[in-house]
Structures are given as C-alpha cells and as structure tokens.
Amino acid sequence: MLPVEFIERMRQQLGGEADLLFQSLEQQPVTSIRLNDKQDVLTFDCDIDEVPWQEDGYYLSERPVFTLDPLFHAGCYYVQEASSMFLQQALEQYVTRDAVVLDLCAAPGGKSTLLSQYLGQGGLLISNEVVRQRVFILSENIQKWGNGNTIVTHNSPAQFGEQCTNLFDCVVVDAPCSGEGMFRKDPQARDEWSPYAVQQCAERQRSILLDVWDALRPGGVLIYSTCTFNREENEENVQWIAECLGAEVLPLACDPEWGITEGQPGYHFYPHRAKGEGFYICALRKTPEDYAPFRPKLARSAGKQQAVNSDYIRIARTWLQHPENWAIRQSDRFLTAYPLHYRELIEWFSAHFTCVLLGFGLGEERGRTIAPQHSVSMLKDLRREAFPQVALSQEQALAYLRTEALMIDNMSVGLVLLTYENVPLGFAKNVGNRLNNLYPNEWRIRKL
Ligand code: SAM
Fold it and tell me: Is pLDDT of 39 > 90?
C-alpha cells in the first residue's frame, strides 16, 4: 500500500498522470547493470536491452543470482539502477576527463564506479562516505572496478568545505533522501515515508550542500541528485542552491524518446515514463568569480615518508603495465600506489583526511620479499604475464570466492593468478600439496 499522503501529494504534482505512476510502483523493479571497461562481453542467460542514455548500461529481462557469477565478484559489472546512470550525460556535457571530482555521498559506489570509469587515467576521484559501516563496501567496489584513480575517504561534508576551499572541478551530491523512487524496490522506504520525513530530508540536504559548498571552485559543476519525486527535496533545494549559494542551472540534453520529464528545474525519472526506478538530477555551475585556487600545502613533518625498499619497488613495478604512471609509498609492511600526476594532492589528503584507500594496495611484505595485494589482481593496469595463470571452472571459482581450499593438478609452485572466463579473480599460493587461498576474507561469499 502506498502512503495516503504520498498519493495526495503526487496527485497535486502530476495531476491525472499520477495514477500511472501509482500503477508502475506496484510492478516489479527493473534489473540493470553497467559494464566495466575491463570486460567487453555480456554473459547473462536472459534477454538484454540497452539503456538508451548510457553506452555501458544494460537492462536484464530477469534478475540473475549475481552472487553465483564469479564475474560479478571480479568487478566486471555493477548492478546499478538504470536511471542513476544518467549521471554520465551530465558528465559528458559539463565535466572534462582531467577533472578532480568529489563524490560526497558515495557508498555503496554506483556513481563512484561510473565516475572512476569516466575519468579514467586523466582525472582524480575522491569518493567519500560519512557513515562508517558503509565505507568498506565502497572501498571494495572501487578496488574491484580497478582503475586505481580513486581515494576513498571517511569524512563529513563540513570537513571538505572547511579544508578544501576551491579545490574541486565537480562535486556530486547524491543525497540521502526520502526514497520515494525506491518504493517498489524497497518496502522499508514506504514504511518510513511521511511528510515529516520529507521535510527532514530536505533540511538535511541543504545542510550537506551548505557544508560542502566552499570545496567547489567557482565555475565548477555541482551535480545534485536524489531518488525521490517530491519538489521539496528536488526543485526547491535546487532553487535554493541557485539563489542562496550562487549558481546557474545547466540544461541537460535528453532525447524525448527516453521518457525523462523536465522539472522546474532539473530532470525527473518517473518509472511509468522512463524505464528504471525513480530519480531526480540537476547540474549547476557555481557562479564564477575571482578566486584563489586550492594549493595543497603539506607541513614538513606531514610530508615525511617512510623510505620505500628499492628491491620491493623493482619487483612491484614488474606487476604493472605502466609503472611510470604510479607513485609508490610504503607504510609499515604495505606498499600503496596512486596516480603520480596527483602526487602532491594525494599526499595532502593522506595527511589531512581519513583515507580508507589511496589508489590501490600494491604489495605486502612477507618474509624477506614483497607479495602483491589482492587489489593488484583487480587492476586494469595489471601485467598479467608477471604471474603464472590458472583458469578455473565456475565451481572452482565459487569455491575460491568462498575462501575454501582448492586442489588443482599440475600447477607451478608459488604464487599464481587465478582467472575465470579469462578475467582475473585473485591470487593463490601453491605450496605443493595444496593451494593457499589468498582471497580477502572480508570479501568472501558467505551464503549461496
Ligand atoms: N551515491 C551512492 C551510489 O550511487 O551508490 C548512493 C548514495 S545514498 C543515496 C546516500 C549516501 O549518503 C548514503 O551512503 C548515506 O550513508 C550518506 N549520508 C547519510 N547522511 C549523510 C550526511 N549527513 N552527509 C553526507 N552523507 C550522508
């Protein structure tokens, strides 16, 4: 049952069309995925249709058990709501691929993995999540995506506003909201909805926007989105940003066939018109004015780094296709690599923010040598030939992902890269009579 006050409000907003919306909210949700560019084939056993506004997006006619697909765990695709993928259009129209972007409310990582792919090796993504329990799944999804161009942070919007003045070319605020667009996917969203919750969400969204605003450079682009329909959390907040914070609303080109509804301002995705769940998005440009660009200044003491063992660097560089693109740092027993081009800025973040992931984990000291960390196996820049490779069947791959012991005949002794359908899944170590499973325990499949 839809909440009665929600029905009344939507009738006011949509008139006679509201009944079509209510009917669509009683139907099954749509399943869609976005393909990682590390993979170019779709292996689903059902009908597949293209998401019209996102080249890498596909609708699936049935919802597979994703947990049973090793390619899901290898980060070959992200199960993402189709409407949300429209972020790509805003990026293509207003954000260059060498931008420094903040995804402020990022977990579990749908928009961040899209941003990471969009920026590729040219830009830098700071992917932030303020709720602690949600940071780890974000970091996992970013590592599986494999670009190495992302820093995952766990900070508040105010910390960005206060410490990163004029830093970001683009800030994405995919705000926590009342979730009306998720009513058919998530029954809890219906139960928790009330006019009071809408008002609370709208206030919290303004506070988040106000807190982070100084971090966006003048002339930079704010992309604001929610998964709700009401005007308070959408149009009214956008108008407030434009008038009170100082920004110009930017038009987004849409093909009329996509079924997207123009808001006043912004763009609504109503499930009875556009195939996907409910969503709202608006892009704004911060009013240009003279400003002092952000310069990362490191205190001398903060800039001091542990010396990196040169033998380890030499070994670790052989694991990468383009070692020249990465800066390597050592902290205790661990080596981390991140884009060399953004060295100063990344070191600054490492000194001033709570960073859960800096680029990717490169290696770990074991005995008197260095062994690759799991995220190397997920990396697009991995040089696969650096390791003996062993192809697994689906059954073996799932056993590996459950961190079970594996027995495989005729394998070289030492570290091996395990693959499934020619995609790396992770490492294992053949110690002669058995294969030590090195899949991260915290990522393992717990239930099938
Ligand atoms: N962008 C994500 C994606 O595409 O996968 C979904 C983000 S979800 C709509 C909103 C996120 O905001 C949640 O992860 C939530 O933990 C976070 N959040 C909640 N309260 C917040 C606050 N006060 N400031 C910033 N983020 C908050």
Answer: no
